[in-house]
Fold each of these.
Amino acid sequence: ARTRRYSFNVTMATVTRLCVTKSIPTVNGRFPGPKLVAREGDTLVVRVTNNINNNVTFHWHGVRQLRSGWADGPAFITQCPIRPGGSYVYRFAVAGQRGTLWWHAHFSWLRATLYGPLVILPPRGVAYPSFPRPHREVPLMLGEWFNADPEAVIRQALQIGGGPNVSDAYTFNGLPGPTYNCSSNDTFRLRVRPGKTYMLRLINVALNDELFFGVANHTLTVVQADASYVKPFAATTLVISPGQTMDVLLTAAANPSSQTFAIAVAPYTNTVGTFDNTTAVAVLEYAAGASAPQAPTPASATGSLPFLPALPLYNDTNAVSDFSSRFRSLASARYPARVPRTVDRHFFFAVGLGADPCQSPVNGTCQGPNNTRFAASINNVSFVMPKTSLLQAHYQRRYNGVLTANFPAAPRTPFNYTGTPPNNTFVTHGTRVVPLEFNTAVEVVLQDTSIQGAESHPLHLHGYDFFVVGTGSGNYDAGNDTAKYNLVDPVQRNTISVPTAGWVAIRFVADNPGVWLMHCHLDVHLSWGLSMAWLVNDGPLPNQKLPPPPSDFPRCS
Ligand code: C2O
């Protein structure tokens, strides 16, 4: 195992997209940010220096941070922000995980431009378990571009109480591509050679959109999700939610029928509100001379598009549930699935949108439903971001005035999908957490409370991978649904979409002491309070305790 050092200098840089030039926060002047690479078992040391006129923190999304919670990064959960001019060294190991993860800013909406891949290769000399080594491995970040300042977008949304302005384009590694204004030259091109196999390390870095993904005329083989191997399966359309990662194999045709094919993303949502209903295109480009002589005219730089893949309609929830149901962990001797077979504590979390009274109206109104402000909650509690680090408060056992350990185990009112809106939009506010004893086997049933016309919620758990043991549509029914759980080879992930008008059940063992955020990875829902935290106590043994914070830890005054 090695130690790998990186420097992140957070600076403003001038970037032009869609004919709009603006100054954006970047790491080392690059957009998107640099790729971090490690081998399983390595230690990463990332020295961050903040040279922008805003606070910042970084989160290493999906890294387990076993007993290194001080490096996890969500602002006011594990640390106070790195102030302008300040610095902090994030130090953590990547153990027991391999595949693609990513990093992003975890303060306000700064992750709109501060993000990049974190690739964990197998240890030296260890092969991939179920597929040969690809010819090339290519990170592909599926994102969103806002012409406006994303900070201003969320500030305004919170003030007027309505939904935020939506993004102006989807992007591939920061490039919108030829379906948008002035963007033909800003097109991501994946150059391939006939017959070779490529691994796409897909990451949904979008702020607010679940995405369909496909490559025209090419089948993809999914081999990894959230840095865990899965039993390989073939698919023509993928669904990937914000926060999720997926490694897929693409084999270039031996005799391609064209020189270029479109790689496309489009949103999945059935929200009634407005959303960015555009399709972004990148180009899969065969080496010159590879295509058959009878091939159609390839796309030219003058704007004609290569063959588009057929993506599902924006609200095709069946396509989404079909795809999600196909994930199985490898569950092999070498990569066993250590699913908790019994649980010590069971939680039922109702997850969804709600409303607050209009408090700061603009022109007399708020823009949520019936002149309210939108809010979002778990069990009717909308999370209030504390002013100090919960982890620091926990380490010092100073909870008074910071958090309360009374997060409800059930929603305030039970509800039912009967075809009419459930009356569960009532919202309270608080920084409420669930304390867990070390090594507790936890089951959480996440029930979406929306009716037709809402979206699913990609719930991300910090500090853990969890097993997805069951899912269904409509109401979770403890009596029947528990019997159908998959405890043999459920997929292991750090982010799972709670399906619209459905539920999902997850299990994990609380073996990582610290304070761990669980939240919707649609940033607007996070801003509205769709979040909670687990407070996992130390175990009795020395190697089961959270060590003290590093000396340069950005303390909260
Ligand atoms: Cu990728 Cu708390 O986030």
Note: The helical segments are 150-160, 317-324, 390-395, 478-481, 523-527.
Amino acid sequence: GLSRTEILTRMHDRLDQSRFDHCVRVEAAARDLAVRFGLDVDRAGLAGLLHDYAKQVPVADYLRVIQREDYSDKLLRYNRGIWHGVVGTYFIRRELGIDDAQVLQAIERHTTGNPHMTPLDMTTFVADYIEPLRHLPMQVQARRLAQHSLTAATIAELQGTLTYLIGRHQLVYPLTLKTFNALVTKEN
Ligand code: DGI
Ligand code: FE
Ligand code: FE
Ligand code: FE
């Protein structure tokens, strides 16, 4: 596979500087979480590093891939906010040759979560939300919760995201709500 340096070069071609820097911070945050919770540190780091690789793929490219590949037409109701996770792995596979199923799944789930998300999936999801430049109140709380519980931090993030979307009358991707329901069911 590609070395980390080669991956960074490819990421620089796809992302502006601030998004690139965010990805490097998420890599470090994901590695920290993996150490804390006894998970595969290199997998967590790779998923964290690559999680937003497809954030700036042109809309036309997304539309083409959603229509030609085996994706649901329902995805057309959403935008790059949703596509860069759910469909983003298509570009990561093709352009970088990444084929680790656990890494790809964590990236696929990093925006919406998934009712069956694994601890590795949660490291990507939570690292994205608590990297050092995140300062919203719920992000600060999730960072604190992540000292002890990946699930608690994940639920806090879902609360923050759902509240934000609903407050702005933005479409909620059903999987995000299903993830919230699944995790609070286990919690209570
Ligand atoms: O890519 P990042 O900005 O680093 O973080 P992210 O992948 O968690 O994406 C956050 C954005 O995605 C934020 O603007 C809210 C949006 N988002 C998250 N869940 C949903 C969603 N947007 C819609 N429409 N529906 C969702 O369920
Ligand atoms: Fe993202
Ligand atoms: Fe996120
Ligand atoms: Fe991100």
Note: The first helix runs from residue 4 to 14.
